[in-house]
Amino acid sequence: MFIEIISPETTIFSGEIKKAKFPGKEGSFEVLNNHAPLVAVLKKGKIRITDAENKNTLFDVNGGVVEIKKNKIIVLAE
């Protein structure tokens, strides 16, 4: 699964991952491979991604939007 985390200034992260957890406005949620298409609003919090070696990385966001479609995740973060 591929993810891009983009802010207005720069690309924060781009690469292949196993899973991701997001601070959704309606509650946190996790995305795994072959997730159903989804668009969600994010609140202030941390995005946690897990790479192929099971290493977790956290990214702070002040909100934003995430789109999931065909094993590609695009995050427009504030």
Name of the CATH homologous superfamily: F0F1 ATP synthase delta/epsilon subunit, N-terminal
Structural category is mainly beta
Q: Reading side by side through the largest sheet, how are the strands ordered?
A: 2-1-9-8-5
- Written as H for each helix and E for each strand, in order along the chain, the element string is EEEEEEEEE
Count of distinct strands: 9
What is the CATH topology assignment? ATP Synthase, domain 1
Describe the sheet with the most strands.
Answer: 5 strands, mixed
Cα Rg: 11 Å
The percent of residues in helical segments reads: under 10%
| Uncertain residue ranges | none
CATH class: Mainly Beta
Approximately how much beta-strand content do the residues carry?
Answer: over 45%
Q: How widely separated are the two ends?
A: 23 Å
Q: Please name the CATH architecture.
A: Sandwich
Number of helices: 0
How many separate structural domains? 1
Shape annotation? globular
Provide mean pLDDT, rounded.
96
Q: Key terms for this structure?
A:
single chain; 78 residues; mainly beta; ATP Synthase, domain 1; four-stranded antiparallel beta sheet; 9 strands; 0% helix
